[in-house]
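User: For a benchmark we're assembling, each entry needs the component sequences followed by a predicted structure for the full assembly. Here are entry 17's components. Please fill in the structure.
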Amino acid sequence: MTAATTSARGTPVTPGRSPLLRALARPELGSVIGAIAIAAFFTTQTDQFATWAGVANVLDVTAALGIMAVAVALLMIGGEFDLSAGVLTASTGLVTALLVDRLGVNIWEGIAWSLLFALAVGFLNGILVTRTRVPSFIVTLGTFFALQGLNVGVTKQLTETVQVGGVDEAQGYGVAQAVFASTWTVGEGEFRVAILWWIVVAVVATLLLVRTKFGNWIFASGGAPVSARSVGVPVGRTKILLFMATAAAAWLVGTISVVRLTSVQANVGLGEEFNYIIAAVIGGCLLTGGVGSAIGASIGALIYGMTQQGIVFAQWDNDWFPLFLGGMLLAAVLINTVVVRRRAEDSPG
Amino acid sequence: MTRRGWPAVVAVATLLVTGCTAGSRPATNDDAVLETLSVTESASATGSGDPDPDRRLRFAIVTHGSAGDPFWDVVKTGAEDAGQANNAEIDYQSDPEPGSQAQLIASVTSRQVDGLIVSMADPDALRETIAAAVAAGIPVITINAGEDRSAEFGALTHIGQSEASAGEGAGDRLRDAGVTKLLCVIHEAGNVGQEQRCQGAARGLGVDGSAEPGDIMRTLRVNGSNLAETETTIATELQADPQIDGVLTLNAAVAVTAATAIGTSGSGAALATFELSDDVVQDIGEGDILFAVDQQQYLQGYLPVVFLALFARSGNVVGGGEGVPTGPRYITQENLDSVHIGTR
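Assistant: Structure for entry 17:
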């Protein structure tokens, strides 16, 4: 059990090793080095990257992705995937917008119902995966398509178009705007409040992972589910809660987006789920579960944001961005694999 | 592989259908009757007048729109409205992936509809299935995209807007508004029509040909399914190149985010867009958007149904082989009142 926990915890405890060597084996190390290199590169190559406005733009893109990447990282450490998370950000926004626009409810009521809806979807994903033992890849692929159809179908039924607007005319919009979509100015940069949400989510997730029993359960559920079960870890319940946490994150991002844009289109969010997984993997998550961190996923999101906006600042043709993203992903996976192999060789007994 | 396999599948399916029909019929030796029958059938399919003018017609539309795209929703509405007015049943199908779109065409062909309406974003991928439909005697009209290949594939006519000339018109108007360097925002990578719009705009903007296209226009690729990110990316581009004094977006949702991005980046660039929506109409009214290039896609759904009904019932063909333009129509503050959203 001791061996299982230590390796599952993501921190190989090899007695007598220097702090430097120990740091080298951290799953997020590769991403930290990558992030520093990318930041240095764009700072020297462009005039605007390292300005307040540039940083604000980078963090704006990073924040929404980061919130999702942290939640998805937790889920991946727990050994599962969620392909429905991207389209769920659109679903939650639609629930809020439709309730506000069609029934004229207070926006907070809409947001609350939308959270309930998200938690229900997460619960459904979790219960289907844990009860049927069907891989989460397949289960959430199903929910992905189901939600995609619901988004368009229900919106079309209720509004006869595929776009819902008028969110800014709802009761309570002012406060919602302040909470989810306000900005504050530093220098000439307009920083979005979503950045604070991202930091809060990352800190809470990190504390959960490294300081609580539930955090241990997450590592154990993903890294060694059989031994975890045999020592009494509620693997099923842990995974269901992780699916619900991912759905709640999708709700947060969907809400931030719908309050900010004041309207939502039924076909958005498709394909975003891959960006979440990419950020989590660049940040050191393994696809096999049991390894990863919330900080790493946040850095993965930061790499995405810096590169995407940096390429525009550098005035390069940003047609090439996906190629770069794919290269980063492969590099990260290779580094992670090496790290894990070394750790397996090092771990005593 | 898949593409090459389809005609064979269609052929087998046709054989099966024919076989079943023949088998279910009482065997007769009267070949002459059967022959006459088949002649009448093929004659009606090629449109020399329907023997029964009151017969309800069945038309299929297969587009490359993705589910939930507001643009294609309007096309569908147009087709359904025309179907009601012309006693025709409309079967709307769509798939943005060219291979899947070809399969949809093959499947409606095998159902022997009275007419087929196809948008050709990727003409080569659809060539064989459209040829099979034409060979089966189904009249085909192409809409929206693929104008230059339409006649070659045997379509009656093409209904749509020439992207290049619409882009050129937009560039022309932006130049009149004083724009010297334009940012053209592409939200679907690899969409030929969007590239043509941007290239057209560059031509319109630098009409005297003295400037290099790269000096007067930059293209920016954004992810159209993440609008918040799109907004930030446009703002970043405007900050990175302060010389940009005009922005051209290619759909309504991106236009609205560009209006916000111009505001937050303090760039003051003039904004024009393709496509209309409630929000775009509002922004034109408030002066945030200079004009919208409307290709009136309602007509791209409505007109082909009318044309096919005319062809089926009277053998008339519209267009004279030249194609029928549905746009561009430029919506500005002056003619804003004439716009009815829902048919836009």
